[in-house]
Amino acid sequence: MFDLQEILPTIGYLGILAVVFAESGLLIGFFLPGDGLLFTAGFLASQGIFDIRTLCLISFIGAVTGDSVGYTFGHRVGKKLLQRENSLLFHKDNIEKARLFYEKHGKISIVLARFMPIVRTFAPIIAGIGDMHYTTFLSFNIIGGLLWGVGVTVAGFFLGKSIPNADKYLLPIILVIVVVSVAPSAWHILKDKKNRDSLKKAVKKLFTRKK
């Protein structure tokens, strides 16, 4: 895992804004560590490295504008994108996962998806493909941006302020956040027998090569 406590002061506010923006709506951002990044940034703010108000503002702006760009992309070229073959940045399984999540939870999925890696990136694209009215999308987008972008950041800030030597517990907490956020997506994938069989074959092939 990247040492976010070392990286974030280096990339600064603009770097954090760029990461949050990219993960919220650009295809290239699905692999970025949004939850851990926001939580760690909030913690660093509690240590005086960042200003918490500025941090919350850029996190909110990055989250909302990123999702809006994702929506626009899905609305304008999404249907054509679905006809393309899989590539390094685009995989139809990710779109399908977000689509199923969107169908199950409806408009509120724009808020819920904020807390699910990969789905978070593709949900606004699916909303655009599905021609959700932009005013409706923007309303849920703003709510999601507040709960995720500001909420996770403030949680890290209060941890740093409330617990002495909290930096000792930061890595385990981030690991828990990652596991909890990834768990729903992992369960959705692994409950499908075809996906389980594919994973078993990949693991078996990996260990066979090592021998």
From TrEMBL:
Residues 32-156 form the VTT domain. Pfam families: VTT_dom. The keyword Cell membrane applies. One of its GO terms (cellular component) is plasma membrane. It is a multi-pass membrane protein. It comes from the Bacteria. Signal peptide: none annotated. The keyword Kinase does not apply. Keywords: Cell membrane, Membrane, Transmembrane, Transmembrane helix. The chain crosses the membrane at residues 12-32, 52-74, 137-158, 170-190. Belongs to the DedA family. PANTHER family: INNER MEMBRANE PROTEIN DEDA-RELATED, TRANSMEMBRANE PROTEIN. This is VTT domain-containing protein. It comes from Candidatus Wirthbacteria bacterium CG2_30_54_11.
